[in-house]
Write a structure and sequence with these properties.
Layout lengths: L12 H9 L12 H8 L5 H9 L3 E3 L3 E3 L13 H14 L15 E5 L4 E4 L11 E4 L7 E4 L3 H10 L24 E3 H11 L8 H10 L14
Antiparallel strand pairs: 1-2, 1-7, 2-3, 3-4, 4-5, 5-6
Helix pairs in contact: 1-5
Length: 231
Amino acid sequence: MSANETKGNGVHPGVEELTRIMSPEHGADERVDWAAAQVDWGVTFPEDYRAFMAVYGSGSISDEAEILAPAPVGTTLAASMADVTRDARASRQIEGGREVLDIDPNDIPAWGVTSGPDLLCWLTADGDPDRWPVLVIGRHTRPMFTIHPPGMAAFLRRLLCEGPGLWERWPLSIGRPLLTKPEPGFVHRQVESDRWRTSGGPASTWSASTARSCASAGSGPAVRASPCARP
């Protein structure tokens, strides 16, 4: 089975692997109208991204990276896919256009943004969306534009599990904050919004299992095996 095939249980294998690293406990099905998204964007979105939207939805990873839905759904987002895509295409033009990145700017949609702010995008020239490479536009990186193998889910796993020493070039401006907590945490944008509205504070990005481990230890995070360890 290839990394882009869906398993018999209906979960994309790349996203299933992410769930073993980053709990979807605070995620929610984004319920994206994919037919409408295809009309709006002129492309069919990759299977791993569609699966991510169904399992996690749009929201924040450890308060350091925002994963974007193809359009705001049910609420106004601080950063929309359209906004970040416009910034990505403008960055290419400002930095030199085809001289720095010989890609049609219309082939650069964004799917995420970090606190850097680094822009996480696809390159969509290939007709098969599951073969789209990941493009990172680093705000304070050199080079500014780096291209990575296909799969946003696989790329996120590398960011969460592999420190800069395991990359030929670390692609982000933010260093390793995604790795500094006991477990990477995801919070859906609506869960975060509801928590702020009802209690005045953000939703925790720790998973329930982490919280239980800390409570049983008496104080502070428990020493535990890395969630990135493969079985």
